[in-house]
Amino acid sequence: MTLPLPDSYEEIPYTSRPFVQTHPDRLATIATLLGMDPPPVAACRVLELGCAGGGNLIPMALTLPHSEFVGLDLSARQIAEGQTVIKSLGLGNITLSQMDIMDIDHRLGQFDYIIAHGVFSWTPRPVQEKILAVCREHLSPNGVAYISYNTYPGWRLHEAVREMMLYHTRNITDPQTRIDQARALLDFLADSILAQSTPHASFLHSYVHYVRDRFVPEEDDAYLFHNELAQVNEPLYFYQFVERAANHGLKYLAEAQFQTMLAHHLPASVLSRLREMAKSTVELEQYMDFLRNRTFRQTLLCHQEVALQSKLPPERLARFYVASSALPDPVDTTIPDNQPVTFRGPKGDVMTTDHPVTQAAMLILSRQWPQAVSFDALYRAAFTSVYGRPPDEPSPLEMDRQLLGANLLQAYGYNDDLVELHISPSPFSCRVTDHPVASPLARYQAANGADIITNLRHENIKLEGINYLLLPLLDGHHSPADLVDWLSTRLQTGEVSLNPDDQIRRELGENHWLPQIVNDALQTIASAALLMGEPDEPDPL
User: Fold this and answer.
1) Given this model, what pLDDT does residue 153 score?
2) pLDDT tens digits, residue range 173-204?
3) The dihedral of CA 484, 486, 487, 488: what is its sign?
4) pTM, 2 dp
5) Helices in 415-479 by DSSP H: which ranges?
6) Would you put residue 460 in left (φ > 0), alpha (ψ -120 to 50) or beta?
7) Distance of alpha carbon 69 from alpha carbon 91, whole angstroms
8) CA end-to-end span of the chain, whole Å?
């Protein structure tokens, strides 16, 4: 059975970008936390269904050269675009192919990680069942599958606005005209609905504004068209998804956004009642969806035969790498005697601890950000900082080690804005060398005028000004002095202009102002996780 590809996917392709929550490192980290022994990320096979132009797979292939990546998509245009990038980067471990999901058979082989992001809810029921069948038949015994989908009850309300847009554009066939008219309707509704008149009007007022502001014109035309205006958009309850997965021999592992599984934000009385009502993890998750009015899930599945654990043995902590962007509050905090210290993440979440080794570890991580540090190295450095000597022969039962692990796990479970856990070392370096080398993909993107750059943390970032201009030159053949000469020449010809702060430096005639600008730019690029790490680069501690 071959489903026809609507011409709209060729006319209005998706913007193909990375999704950090789908990365094998994320999937393997969560699987390991829950007692699995997933395949090593450094040498695995990854399949992505609905890969678009490879924006998610190509960065993985770049940072995991000993792994193999296969992407399938119906859109010939997007596959061709991805193949162009792959050829330009000279990657030999990734293949993108135009293929209908329904045509997948045994010849594709087995994969350790299977990804289907933004596909399941937007395909007819037979394709949904095929996606689950592929996960069962092509997933290795200890592999992990990722599937995202829209969920009820939250989507009950969202459907109202979607159906209004579908009605308004029902007689329009041209994709761009449909998008323009859908936006026009959103603007009309946003300007005309009185928010306080009725509960229904209050919801519509807030949600219409949300949809209108979320899908920014031009940037997100494709997302508005292929999601809100899609011919098929079939949400379902979480328990229904789990039941259908079970019919294919798969079981629920976790959510890719692991922190959403925990109920620590709820009052104690609510938690107590939830535990009385829910007889299983699936039931608890479903009741949580009822409480939160959840609209979207990013679910991880594994084979039914896999045994899971609810608690992480202390010795398993040695397998993880830890990173944190949280800063002490106040920033100039030093470790006090027997006093709690608060660490605050970029989005405002806080972690407070009176354990000296944890305090020292968090201070160390804040200085190492964005690079991850192995747990054992972090423990040794923090212990030494507190006690003035390294710990004795490492033992997972040492009290300070256990407390550090428990505190980091608790902070990770609360919000990965406070603590990140990784099963693999960072594939980038924060050290600026004599001839720095930036990510080949980021250099390619900047050289081709892309507004959004993919860093080596599998994130979308935006660089501006001189940082952006220097990025394509960081190919290992230019020293900082070469970059100063390049920049000086282009300032003289007017090809490059300085930002206001740098212009002030120039006008004040500060010594070495131009080398300092280049040095600042290189440090910014390094802090953005854009510099390639050396194959045998040691742990930063």
Assistant:
1) 95
2) 888 899 999 989 888 887 787 766 677 777 77
3) positive
4) 0.92
5) 440-447, 465-470
6) beta
7) 10
8) 55
Q: What is the pLDDT of residues 460-504, one digit of tens each?
A: 999 988 999 999 999 999 999 999 999 989 888 888 877 776 666
Q: State the chain's mean pLDDT as an integer.
A: 89
- Answer yes or no: is pLDDT of 3 > 60: no
In whole angstroms, give the CA distance from residue 23 to residue 55: 12
Whether residue 312 has pLDDT greater than 90: no
Q: Give the per-residue SS3 of 4-66.
A: CCCCHHHHCCCCCCCCHHHCHHHHHHHHHHCCCCCCCHHHCEEEEECCCCCCCHHHHHHHCCC
Q: How far apart are CA 435 and CA 142, in angstroms?
A: 41
What per-residue confidence (pLDDT) applies to 492? 85
d(CA 189, CA 205): 7
User: Which segments of 293-387 does DSSP mark as H helices, in order?
Assistant: 356-368, 375-387
HSE (CB half, 13 Å, CA atoms) of 30?
28
Other beta carbons less than 10 A from residue 518's beta carbon: 21
Encoding tokens for residue 276? 């009385």
Q: For helices 154-168 and 199-214, what crossing angle results, to 10°?
A: 70
Token pair, residue 330, equals: 């106040």
If pLDDT is split at 50, 70 and 90, which confidence band does 219 have? low
* 3-state SS, residue 302: strand
Beta bridge partners of 71: 48, 96
CA distance 412 to 322: 10
3-class SS of residue 363? helix
Q: What are phi and psi of 253, to 5 degrees?
A: -105, -55
The structure tokens listed for 309 are 């654990």
Contact criterion met (CB below 8 Å) for 161 and 204: yes
Q: How large is the average pLDDT for residues 30-51?
A: 96
3-class SS of residue 245: helix
